[in-house]
Amino acid sequence: xxxxxxxxxxxxxxxxxxxxxxxxxxxxxxxxxxxxxxxxxxxxxxxxxxxxxxxxxxxxxxxxxxxxxxxxxxxxxxxxxxxxxxxxxxxxxxxxxxxxxxxxxxxxxxxxxxxxxx
Length: 118
Prior knowledge:
Elements: E1 4-7, E2 10-13, E3 18-24, E4 33-39, E5 46-51, E6 58-60, E7 68-73, E8 78-83, E9 92-99, E10 107-108, E11 112-117
Parallel strand pairs: 2-11
Antiparallel strand pairs: 1-3, 3-8, 4-5, 4-9, 5-6, 7-8, 9-10, 9-11
């Protein structure tokens, strides 16, 4: 089973960019589907983006489509989320997740805070 550690969060002004990274341990990273989720204060956790184990297929929430890009490097056991044109409503704790099936995740990172100021 992989372990996940997110990094790259921070404070940014609206319209700015951030790149989140998720480092995975273990030799089976390339077999996992990976996803990014986020949870804002007082709200439920919501799906942001996912990528297939081989990286050929991606899917995004409508709220981030065209602004965020998910990618992975299986040689480096890394998955990234490039976030552009950030909005205050993107403020949340962002979590990386892994699973053997798309849309089914059983391993989660500790989260990284993203704050977008207006």
